[in-house]
Amino acid sequence: MILLHRINNRNIQFEYIYASISPRMRIFFALLFLITACATASGENITTKTTVKNTAVSKNIADSGYNIHVKIEPYKNCWIYLGSYYGKNKILVDSAWFNEKSESTFKGDKKLPGGIYFFVSPGHSLLFEILMDEGQQFTIKADSAHLENITVTGSKENELFSAYTRYLSKVAPQLNALQPQLQNAKTKADSAAIQQQQVKLNKELNEYRQKLIDENPESMVAVFFQSVKMPEIKTWPKTPDGKIDSVAAWRYMKEHFWDNINFNDNRLIRTPFFDPKLDDYFKYYVPAEPDSIISEVNYMLLSARTGKDIYHYLLGKFTDKYINPEIMGQDKVFLFLFNNYFSKGDTLWLNEKQRKYIFDRAYSLIANQINEPAPQLVLKDTAGKLVSLYNIKAPFTFVVFWDPTCGHCKEQVPEVDSIYEAKWKALGVAVFAVNTNENTFEDWKQFIKEHHLQGWVHAWQTKDERQAEESAGQANYRQLYDIFQTPTMYLLDADKHIIAKKLSLQQYDAIIDTKLNSKTKASTTK
Questions:
Q1: Which has the closest alpha carbon to 148: 176, 174, 167?
Q2: Overall pTM > 0.85
Q3: In what side-by-side order are the strands of the sheet with 378-380?
Q4: CB of 332 closer than 8 Å to CB of 294
């Protein structure tokens, strides 16, 4: 991030990102990003090409729009782009044709949202950053060979920022040069001397920033400097035996992590540091247990309510993360968001497709939460007799939904049988296997016979039975168990509570071992 670390960053490639939020390309946030990012990146007025006109700025633009006259040498007769950050991504906001004098004007009739913006070369390399506050009529002069000498007139915020970057251009090279020296130091004395220089330079840098904050406490620069600050432990806590108390230190960091952050400040989402700071907080200071996450998420959303853009951004980010979580059980966080925000009418900013996806996903997760009773299954076996999940008496019940024509199922179902015969059967584990393909009765029976799937409860539901449920307004097991792919597997305890879902076969086996070991230890301690 140039704001803190470097000035000349021409090797960073500018990405034209409009919807690529998640590596997994989750449906919800991809759609959300199209609305929030593109619609708000330039006050709902994205200009793709702006020609230079030597005309006076209209009163409307002067009052409510933006008008930034820019000279960047040596660029001539080419397009230069204006972009902004949006979380981890970069958004194209405007572009302008630079004339023979390396000059052009970026302008629009609506103000740009506040935050950190940047100019991009014709080769799509990031040139330098600027701050966008309420005053959006100013002039910039820069030379791409000496970006530390940028001059800005008409914007106090950018004058402060330019002065800081000039100072940083002197300190940063010194700090960067010390790092390899430290790595190559041959003696402890050499290392100590280099570390002392690092401490001295960092102290000077921090004092410069603090002075800027003290003298300009209401400035955007000060707000951003405060935002990136990490809690400083001046006196490390110790345990009664004199050792460093790492738990107390962790607790202090957690309690003070957001001391300088105002969650209703919309400008934060248009910076390169806010989203990574969020990720770090949840990674290092919030337990993976859903209730702990819910407490943090709810606090942030309630705090951001009055900041429309950042509130929608946070709600979208958390929904994206927990609607299909990487860690089992964290979909409970998404259900909290659904029950406390989306289902209470907080959907006006979504289109119909987004709204439908969120509601459908919630209805598919409500009935299969970890530690909750599994939905009842009363289906027919291969002989047409009714079989009930809750009639099975076993310390563990392994429920597998599969399709005899599915390639993955053809591989994994025999693997289930292998571990069942080798280990689970002796432990009393029951297997309740449901054929989800209502058009494969004969194929289903043939697969069971060929692979000797004996000792299992095999069940399915006919098409007529499914349609009868739908006519009666009853939820089908596919929704109740969130079955959108096969195989889908669940592990239940003796009371038919869900203790694991959608894991690998090896993970299920490990959970069974852990549960049995815990039970053994508990009985031996009595």
A1: 167
A2: no
A3: 386-388, 378-380, 457-460, 430-435, 397-402, 488-492, 498-501
A4: yes
